[in-house]
Design brief:
Helix 4 crosses helix 5 and helix 7 crosses helix 9. An 8-stranded parallel sheet has the order 1-10-4-9-8-5-7-6, sandwiched between helices. It folds into 3 domains: 216 residues, Rossmann fold, CATH 3.40.50; 162 residues, 3-Layer(aba) Sandwich (Rossmann fold); 75 residues, Alpha-Beta Plaits. With 476 residues, it is α/β, with parallel strands linked by helices. Bound molecules: adenosine-5'-diphosphate (ADP) and magnesium ion. The site of adenosine-5'-diphosphate has 13 residues, from helix 4.
């Protein structure tokens, strides 16, 4: 099996600093990259793009944030014929959030191509508008396997003209049980096509699906370990749930991280840990796959806009999401797999900042610790927890609070209107307003804690587009 793949292994140092202009990309794409501030290729781009532009299938493995989206995005855009108004590319992603992110990045990369249509098709959204959009036609479809399969079954989507098929975060899609859906989808795509598979890890399952859906793929792997220098890792030995909770509280109070993610192994544990933190007064929110879509969106929005300092989550829920550059990462349980461990902690210590990674383990994890020592090429010894005197401290509060408005793009609300309403007649300054997110039918606004009352009053008084909208403060 392995001989079937051609392995290319490079080290980061050799390929740093390569310009996009060394590729045979059309000039519109190139100049747009400059305007996006993409001056040099990332490692995975430098290694994959020449192969992709050569029309070959690839399996690429790279850590979160390595620039995988632009890797396949540029490859497929270069090949796309805008004049042929047919679905020429299908990109499969594990979750709606990821599909939305990929859709956005593809649109950014394609800014210089006129009349290109990128359509996102995900579950949790009504069918009607999707069918309408499909009738209007699209060049690129980004979606989740379940919903794409539904459209194929209904006959509302046709893959006969697909030339490029992308599987993004393939390992997650398999973890989430999408294997059959993926197989069904691929069966309806032409055999003659280019297939690009991206995965953060490389379990056996990936090898087997790759063997079925790729043709003579080139395998590309970029270094999966992070520079340990910027991440201070601590390991604590615990014996039960109470120990873990106490250790978590001690570390949160001692270090007071501005933003942290606590990784748990199960949805139930996420809920338990989050409830306990909330009861103790921490600004914590839970994120896992059993939450309703609205609550998941809201959790991510509140964490990203700094209305919550702690996100308790499963791996699946956080993978690939734009919640990097955390102050701290907690492994409530040591990860099952070393690569997962490295991925989790890789979200901290970014961009020159110092990161903190805290991992809790017990007697039964001895083998995992040994494997991790081997993988990280360091010894792991038990660290001492901060003194219990910190328990007298109050949990740190988030700097921001989120307000939700029951109105959005459909009601013609734009971020500028919200800023205008808030800053009108003084009271709130521009600096006191944080992230604003406007969706079709609702908007979220973060404002500094000190001005929440004033902000709420201003927005609910009907100063927005001269209308009254239902407004609420979103709390835990
Ligand atoms: P991955 O899918 O590998 O986790 P993404 O594709 O989401 O990574 O990219 C991570 C971030 O890096 C994004 O914000 C993207 O805009 C940015 N990025 C990608 N390629 C480049 C580049 N060549 N130069 C600068 N920024 C880049
Ligand atoms: Mg990605």
């Amino acid at each position: 099996m392995v001989a079937f793949f051609k392995f290319i292994l490079f080290r980061s140092s050799i390929l740093s600093q390569q310009s996009f202009s060394s590729l045979s990309l059309n000039s519109d794409l190139l100049s747009n990259l400059e305007s996006l501030g993409y001056h040099e290729m990332t490692e995975i781009q430098a290694q994959s793009l020449p192969v992709i532009l050569d029309g070959k299938d690839i399996i690429a493995q790279g850590k979160t944030g390595s620039g995988k989206t632009a890797t396949f995005g540029l490859g497929l855009l270069q090949k796309l014929d805008v004049k042929r108004f047919r679905v020429q590319t299908l990109i499969l992603c594990p979750t709606r959030e990821l599909a939305d992110q990929v859709g956005k990045e593809i649109r950014r990369l394609a800014r210089s191509i006129h009349n290109i249509k990128v359509l996102t098709l995900c579950g949790g959204m009504p069918f009607g508008p999707q069918i309408g959009s499909l009738e209007h036609g699209a060049h690129i479809i980004v979606g989740t396997p379940g919903r794409i399969e539904d459209h194929l079954r209904k006959g509302t989507l046709n893959l006969d003209n697909v030339e490029t098929l992308v599987l993004d975060e393939a390992d997650r899609m398999l973890d989430m049980g999408f294997q059959d859906a993926i197989d069904n989808i691929i069966e309806q795509a032409p055999k003659e096509r280019q297939t690009l598979l991206f995965s953060a890890t490389f379990p056996e399952q990936i090898e087997s699906i790759a063997g079925r859906i790729l043709t003579n793929p080139v395998t590309i792997k970029v270094e999966s370990t992070h520079d340990d220098q910027m991440i201070n890792q601590y390991f604590y030995k615990v014996s039960n749930h109470e120990d873990r909770m106490l250790a978590l509280r001690l570390l949160l109070l001692h270090y007071q991280p501005e933003s942290s993610v606590v990784f748990c192994n199960t949805k139930r544990e996420v809920q338990e840990v989050n409830d306990e933190l909330v009861n103790r007064g921490f600004g914590s929110i839970a994120l896992h796959g059993d939450l309703e879509q609205k609550d998941r969106d809201q959790a991510l929005i509140r964490f990203a806009n700094k209305s919550a300092t702690i996100l308790v989550a499963t791996d699946v829920a956080t993978r690939g999401l734009d919640i990097d550059n955390l102050s701290a990462v907690f492994n409530f349980h040591i990860a099952h797999d070393q690569e997962v461990h490295v991925h989790r902690i890789g979200r901290t210590g970014r961009a020159g900042n110092k990161g903190l990674a805290f991992s809790f383990y017990n007697q039964k994890d001895a083998n995992r610790i040994i494997a991790l020592e081997d993988y990280l090429d360091r010894t792991i010894s038990e660290d001492a927890l901060p003194s219990e005197s910190v328990l007298d401290m109050l949990p740190p509060q988030s700097t921001m609070i989120t307000i939700r408005i029951e109105g959005g793009k459909k009601q013609k609300i734009r971020p500028g209107d919200i800023v205008g309403a808030l800053t009108a007649d003084s009271g709130i300054t521009f600096e006191q307003i944080g992230k604003i997110q406007v969706s079709a039918n609702w908007s979220y606004i973060a404002v500094q804690r000190e001005v929440i009352k004033v902000a709420f009053k201003k927005l609910s008084e009907g100063k927005l587009k001269g209308r009254k909208f239902r407004v609420m403060v979103v709390r835990g």
